[in-house]
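Regression test case RT-17, inverse folding.

Input:
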């Protein structure tokens, strides 16, 4: 059985980012099915972070003031940051195509004093197809196994 593991990582030099995921998939005959939706999660998402103390999972609010689970980078003042966040295993079932919607917030580097060279306002999205969970592969050293999603489009809203 083919499965898809999605990893919104690495996030080098990034300060506060809040992630929520919505993964609708196009199954055979283009039926749409959601295989992961963190917008309605009320408990911890349980994603794996690298370094272990690099991320914090917190409750936040969306634009409609609904409570949502989010992750934020904690070590914004550390030099040479390389922060990774690995989702739980996602079974793609019979899907031939996966659509990923990521909602995130990035804090302006200029608004954080004393982070000169350690701040960046970008991130990359990678994925890995696997037949089992890959939770043991959380080190940036294993990036060669992951596929960078290109191109991607970001809609910036004020």
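Golden output:
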């Amino acid at each position: 059985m083919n499965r898809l593991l999605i990893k919104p990582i690495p996030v080098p030099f990034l300060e506060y980012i809040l992630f929520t995921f919505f993964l609708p998939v196009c199954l055979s005959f283009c039926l749409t099915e959601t295989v992961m939706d963190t917008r309605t999660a009320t408990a911890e998402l349980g994603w794996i972070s690298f370094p272990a103390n690099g991320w914090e999972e917190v409750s936040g609010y969306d634009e409609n003031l609904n409570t949502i689970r989010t992750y934020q980078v904690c070590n914004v003042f550390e030099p040479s940051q390389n922060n990774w966040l690995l989702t739980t295993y996602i079974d793609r079932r019979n899907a031939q195509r996966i659509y990923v919607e990521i909602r995130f917030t990035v804090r302006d580097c200029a608004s954080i004093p004393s982070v000169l060279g350690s701040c960046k306002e970008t991130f990359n999205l990678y994925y890995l197809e696997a037949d089992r969970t890959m939770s043991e592969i959380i080190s940036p050293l294993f990036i060669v196994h992951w596929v960078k999603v290109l191109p991607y489009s970001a809609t910036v809203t004020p």
